[in-house]
Structure formats: structure tokens, C-alpha cells
Amino acid sequence: MPKLKLEDLARIREESRRTTLLREGAGRVKIIVHMGTCGIAAGARKIMEAVLREVEGRGLKDVLVTTSGCAGLCSREPMATVEVLGEAPVKYVDLTEAKIKAIFTEHVVGGAIAGQYALAVGSERVH
Amino acid sequence: MPYRMHLMVCAGTGCVSNRSLEVRDALQREIKKRGLEEEVQVVTTGCNGFCGAGPIMVVHPDGIFYQQLTAKDIPPLVEEHLLKGRPVAKLMYVPSEAPAPLPKMGDIPFFNRQRLIVLRNRGLIDPEKIDDYIARDGYTALAKALTMTPEQIIEEIKRAGLRGRGGAGFTTGVKWERVRKASGELKYLICNGDEGDPGAFMDRSIFESDPHAVIEGMVIGARAMGVQHGVVYIRNEYPLAVQRILIAIEQAREYGLLGEDILGTGMAFDISVTRGAGAFICGEETALISSIEGRPGDPRARPPYPAEHGLWGKPTCINNVETWANVSPIIIHGAEWYRQIGTETSKGTKVFSLVGKINNTGLVEVPMGITLRELIYEIGGGIPGGKKFKAVQTGGPSGGCIPAGFMDEPIIYETREDKRAVSEHLDLPIDYESLSHVGSMMGSGGVVVMDGDTCMVDIARYFLSFTQDESCGACTPCREGTKLMLDILTKITEGHGTMEDLTALEEIAWVVKQTSLCGLGKTAPNPVLTTLRYFRNEYLSHIEAHKCPAHVCRELNTYRIDPETCVQRGHGCGVCRRECPEKAIFGDKNQPHWIDMAKCRKCGVCVDVCHFDAVIVE
What per-residue string of b and e applies to A19-45 under the rule 16 or more CB within 10 Å gives b? Predict the structure, then answer.
């Protein structure tokens, strides 16, 4: 390992930060892939991989990917929820790898809901 | 592919001894089996502080907190949480008296009441990876310090009001200035990691969870004081801490953050590690220096202070581990930011290790000025079994016992100067006054919590036996005085004490305190003096009534069997009769049993074995 100069320190920080930022639990966008039994049976694992590929391919640093259980609409699996900070969560249904690409372009990066794949905006009421 | 999930498995000493490494191995196996190894990363971290709940794992990005894990919990956990995204409630933390588990780390009072400066990276980085530290702004402070003049750095530390965290509370910036101004080219820095107080593990944990924080602080100090060589003095009883600081130093050298030409600026500084052999006295700075030089760890009289005449006779700056770890945040965020935390006289935070009769055993970092009540009840979760809080023992064998009555006083630092101001105001002798303030006894940060089952005379005897054993013998008051005090205390706990003994005890304590050579002797009588002051009635009870109120001093206990309970509930079961080593218990089946006190050796086995609480201790 060559000795560092001041500017190398900043570079290492940026690079390592990409991989450790997730531990701080703060991201601009959170993508939840629903991985209940129904979701997994319908191919949620492939969707998860596609999501992670997109995050890496686009070099996104502020996107958290996580999983949750069945969202209650098993016939429309695989499903994913996209939560942009400060906006209502959006549920996408009947996902394919191609749709994930489109959702990233339009919603995660573009900031506009990919209406053609979305089921609903908002969450169920609790309480 | 980036990982979507980070599993932070605690690998501090506490969790490792509760088999957290087995948990980690089980996780790695299971993750591989489920084909998740490209999505989920397992990270071993330093101590999280919640040692009582170990082994601990925190799952990010959601911050789900799992506790008391075993290897067999792992397969279902991987399937449910990692694969299906359903956190497993039964492995979460449930506070006492709470109806439901708290899933998130940030919701648990133990964590969310803390303010982390020194422990800023704990649980968030792998302490053996320098890149993890750099990602969390590590060595940014050094980069900044290299653009500042040495005087500016010292001024910043001074204005921040940082005080030595080893217990004495001396202003760090002033010490640095003295070393900078001391004559001579050759100077040294020392990091004092000889943490010897029973029940204290702050320094160990800092080394284990974030060794680079200490190194970075030392390099900044070297820049400020114009020093080229530093020594980390660390107890060899801390194998994991030794290992991690050695790894960290090696990594820093590879990156050019230690050695010649640091970050290409031409600055040279390197650190060596000296392992202590476990003598308590070596925590005292002059004894520590003597030990580094290869001589016996004997203290010497000060002045001259190490700032003028230290290691190898050269000007030396010696600071505690926690003090060094405070340096980088001050340089990054500035003195003004630091001054906002804490109280008027004590700035910043303090790390405490909470042990003894407390629910949440562990390591916490809190703003200065917090009260004992907040520390023990809100963060510590109170006393187990709903028992009553009696006292805390702070600062180890040199500290004092603070009774419950002081629970709402803020914990702050007080130096001799502060005390002098207060004592002049109140017209009290300094040393006497110093014992009435909680802050003056804060010490290095070990907090031993005691409930009603603790005998204060016995506690004083225990700590005296420790200091007497560790006294180096160089000066008469400490060598002879601690022995005399221990003899008297032992006599009292055995029921042979007299009122004259009590007077003598107090007198010897003051003499030892005022005339000993070094800090060990000067503070060794503190447990005696504070218990005498706040728990004198317990001493009197031992001497006059020959009774130990907490039933700890067995010589003073008498045992009897309640005949009704014995027959009605236990049907004269005879367990006590069979277990008694002295054959001092008599009685037939279905008949009340009784103890022959002439034969009884007061071992207490009968109390332990009786299922019906029929044996009464008086």
C-alpha cells in the first residue's frame, strides 16, 4: 500500500462511505422488496437481485434496500415498495426485472412515480 | 453488488466470552446455505456497551437490535429476518416491566439516552479495518490539524475545556502547552491504558471498538507539541485490546498516517506499544514511566511533573485513552461545539462502566453533569429484583462510596482549585469538603452499583485489601497505613471491633491520605472515609450490636430454624441436616429441626439449601 496523501484520504473516505452508509440507516430512498412465502414463490429473489444490480450499476449512494413480509396481496407478487424521503410510499406490483429498470429510471432517479406499474400510493391506516 | 444488509455482530470482550464468535460463524454458514452471501455482510464490531445483553447483533439499515443470541437461534433468524424481512421478536430486548419487546436500537433507553463522542464509532465499524474508520470521517481531524499551527491546535483544545479523563481532571490544553514550551528537542507522548480499577473497562472498550480514534488523537497531539515518538501503555490482561491497537498501528503505518512524512507533509511521528504486567500502581503516571523504562513500577514524588521531566528524563505528555479519543471530534467540530455539551466546569461527555447490582450492565457515554438517578435508573434500568438502591462506588479502590441521597447531584469534574474555591466559600477544609461532592469522586469512570444486600464495612474492607495488596511499599504511610486499616476493618467485620478501633481507623485514614507519596496512597483511604461518613451506623452496628445489617459478615450472623415453617411447609425435610458440614443441625422427619449454635460455623449452607425459607438469619 503506497503512503497516502491528503487527497487520497478523501478518496478512501468516499469509497468506504458507499459501503458503510447503510449502517447509519439514513437514505434518500428506501426500497422494500416483499419477501413473504408468496413473494419468494413468485420470484422475489430475482427482483431483489435486480434491485441490487441497479443500485450498483447506477452508483447510487443514498438508496437502502431492505425486505419485508407479505404485503397481503399475494396474487400481485412480486411486489416492492419505494419510499422517497418525505413522500408517500408507492407499491409496485407484478414486477419483472425489466420493470425494476424502469422504476429506477423514472422514480428512484427521476423522481416521478412510474404510474403504469404502481398499485397504490400511500400505506394502509394503522390504529 | 452492494450489500443490502449489514449484520453488526459485537466482538467486544464481554460478547466474545458469551460466545459471539460462534454466533458469527453460524451466521456465515447459514447465509451461505441460503445463498445470501452477496446480499448480506457480516461485520464484527467492538463493544456496543450493552454487555449485560450479549451476545448482541444489530441489523442495518433498520437498526434492529438482537440480544442474548446463541448459535441455534441463527437458522430461524436468517430465514425470517434476512430472507423474509420479518424481524424476530423473541430475540429482541424487553425492558423490565415493559409489555412488548423494543425492536429498534434507537428506541431502547439504554442507547437513546447516551451521547457518543468518544464511542462515536462503536458498533458501526470493524475495528480491524482502517477504511471503515476513514469512512466515518476518520483522520479528517488530522488532515485539518496539519493545516493548523501547533498553537492553534492547543488553543482549540484549551478553549474546548477538555479535562483528563483518567480521574484527576487536569485541563488537557494546559498540559499540552507545558510540554510544547518545555525546553529540548526530544519529547514523548504516552497513552495511559493501564486501567486497573476493579469493574472499570472504559479504556479496554475504546481500544477494542475504535483503536484508530486513540491513534489519531495522539498524532494530532504530536503535531501540537512537536513530538516524534509516542508510547501506548496497555495492560497485558487485555489481549483483544492489545491485538487491535497493534493491528491499527500497523495499518496506520501502511497508509502513511504514522511514520516519516505523514500524509506527505513532512511530519514524523510513530507509536510503540508497551504492555503492562498488571500492577495497579502502574496507572500512576510516574510509576508508569518507570515501568516503560524497564524499571520496577515505583512512583516518585512530583514535582517535577512529567511535562518537564518524564520518560527518559524528557518532557512527556501523558494522557488517558479516553482523553486522546476526545481530540479528533474537537478538532473537526470545533471548541464551541464541544463547550455546549456538559456543565460550566466539566465539558463534553464521560464514559462510565456500569457494573454490580444493576439491570443493564455495560458501558455508557453520557454528557457531563448527568445525575446518578438518570445514570442508574434511566440508562442502567434500575436495580434487579426491584431492590432498593443503596450506594455507588465510583473510581475503583481510590474512589468513594456515594450514598443514594446524592442521587440527584450532577456528576462533574472538580479539581483541587475548584474545591478550594468551594471550600473557602463554605469555610471547610479542602479534603473534607472534597468527600462531600459526588464529582470529586468520579474517578476514571467505574461505577459499581450496590443494593441493600451490600455491607458497607465489608466493601471498605474489600477495597482496602486491594490497595494494601497493590501498595508498592515505597512510602511508610501507604505501606503501613493500608495494612493497619485493613486489620482494623477485618477485626470489625469479624465482630471484635471496639470504638477505639473506629477512632484509630479514621485517624490513620487521614494520615495516609495526607502524607502518602503518590495517588494510590492519597486515595486509598477514600472508601473508608466515605463509608465512615455516610454509613457510620453500619460500623456502629458491627461494633456495638455485633450485627451486620446486610447479613454479609457471616461471623456476626446467627441462624435459627423457624419450627412452624419447617414442619408445616417443609415437613421437616432434613435437607439442611444432611448438608450441614459441621453436623450442627438436628431433627427427625416431620419434626421441627434446630441448630446447635455451639457447633455452628456460620457457613450459611442451611439458608442456601432450604426450599421453604425456614432458616432465618439474624
Answer: bbbbbeeebebbbbbbbbebbbebebb
Find the mean pLDDT for residues B110-135. 90
CATH code of the domain made up of B558-617: 3.30.70.20
Per residue in B31-84, pLDDT (tens digit) is 999 888 888 999 999 888 898 888 999 998 888 999 999 999 999 999 989 888
CATH superfamily membership of B5-107: Glutaredoxin (3.40.30.10)
- B166 contacts B236 by C-beta, under 8 angstroms: no
Q: Which of B3, B60, B135 has the CB atom closest to A17's CB atom?
A: B135
For the CA atoms of B483, B486, B492, B495, what is the dihedral angle to 10 degrees?
-80
Q: What pLDDT does residue B440 have? A: 47
C-alpha–C-alpha distance, residues B199 and B215, integer Å: 25
Q: What is the mean pLDDT of residues A61-70?
A: 82
B430 pLDDT band, cuts 50/70/90, is very low
Regarding beta strands B362-367 and B349-356, do their DSSP bridges make them parallel or antiparallel, or are they unpaired? antiparallel
Q: List the grid coordinates of B25.
A: 460463524
List the domain boundaries for chain B.
Answer: 5-107, 130-339, 349-544, 558-617
CA B112 to chain centre: 20
In chain B, which residues touch A (CB < 8 A)? 1-6, 8, 38-39, 60-63, 82-86, 124-125, 131-132, 134-140, 143, 146, 254-257, 259, 261, 263-265
User: Sign of dihedral through CA atoms B166, B171, B174, B176?
Assistant: positive
CATH topology of domain B349-544: de novo design (two linked rop proteins) (1.20.1440)
Contacts of B417 (CB under 8 A, 6+ apart): none
CA B122 to centroid of chain Cα atoms: 16
Is the domain spanning A24-121 CATH 3.40.30.10? The answer is yes
**Residue whose grid cell is 429506477:** A104
Does the pTM exceed 0.80?
Answer: yes
CA-CA-CA-CA torsion for B294, B169, B353, B276, nearest 10 degrees? 0
Q: Which of B253, B447, B419, B277 is nearest to B345 (CA)?
A: B419
CB contact under 8 A, B2 and A56: yes
Coil, helix or strand at residue B527 = helix
Which among A36, A31, A69, A71 has a CA at the least distance from the CA of A50? Answer: A31
CA angle B66, B67, B72 (to 5 degrees): 90
- Residue B63: list chain A partners with CB under 8 A: 25
Report the alpha-carbon distance of residue A100 to residue A25 in Å, rounded.
Answer: 23
**Cα(B16)–Cα(B14) distance, rounded to whole angstroms?**
6
Which of B134, B264, B265 shows the shortest C-beta gap to A13? B134
Is residue A5 within 8 angstroms of chain B, CB to CB?
A: yes
What would the pLDDT profile of A9-61 be if each residue is shown by its tens digit?
A: 888 888 887 777 777 766 788 898 988 888 888 888 899 989 988 988 888 87
* Domain with residues B130-339, CATH architecture: 3-Layer(aba) Sandwich (3.40)
- Across A81-91, average pLDDT: 85
Assembly ipTM:
0.76
**Dihedral pair phi/psi, residue B321, rounded to 5°:** -50, -50
Smallest Cβ–Cβ distance between B131 and the set A12, A48, A56 belongs to: A12
